[in-house]
Prior knowledge:
This protein is of the alpha/beta class. The protein has 14 helices and 13 strands.
Amino acid sequence: MIEIEHVTKRYGDVTVVDDVSMVIEPRTITVIVGTSGSGKTTLLRMINRLVEQTSGAIRLDGLDNRSVPGPQLRRSIGYAIQGHGLFPHRTVAQNIATVPVLLGWDAARTKARVDELLALFQLDPAAFGPRYPHELSGGQQQRVGVARALAAEPNVLLMDEPFGALDPIIRTKAQDDLLAIQKRFGTTIVLVTHDMEEAVHLGDRIAVMDAGRLVQYAGPAEILARPANDFVETLIGTSDRPFKLLSLGSVDEAIEPGQAEGEAIGADATQRDALAKLLWSGRSEMPVTDGDGKAIGRVTVDGLVKRAARPA
């Protein structure tokens, strides 16, 4: 658990983060979103003390983050940034091993962890471990950057615009990889982005920052349905808000009894995907199948449209 209590950061007369309080539950993904200059990156960096707060307290599992030396704290917290920050003259394996080596892990344990993470990110250890960063694609570099941040088995992973430089297709894959990794390891992730679409897709909770202040902190559905003020409303956008809401629910939550003809959709797909397929094919309904391919009901345009409406 990360507790941020009345935290403020000032540079001279300029207040960058203004009296922010929030609790980040363990084994969740919290996304901090806001426009440039809103204070989101400064808030993130105060967790691992790359930036020192002017006032207030930050506690990790009840321990004040100022009670241990900064370098020791940062070795216990994963950190991934846009551009990946890989060391160009170290191999992929050496990059990932950076923090385990600093912590004094033995060679066998370090190699096992590097190989595990490379395999987890679908990078063959024998093929990719000896390579250098410039020999990788942007998406591969991003995966190595996240693997390095996870190498020392941290309970907390901080991510600052980690997918910002990726093209849309690779970015979507990287986001899905992150969700799978978080589910496997149970890591508490705090991620900064300016992209509300990304925040809705990844976040268990979303913290919206504006001019240094925390203006709303809630789950994606609550923020989409009940934005706290005009700034949050503008950040969300209005034209595709119904589709964002549908992206939060799976098809199995929208199944209706009965049979339908034509191409089916899996129960684990999002309601947004189901509506898109229905509209594109000009159908009013389609069958839904379970993991074994067995038909278990149908999903309809009318039913999905009702789910996309703003909650009462």
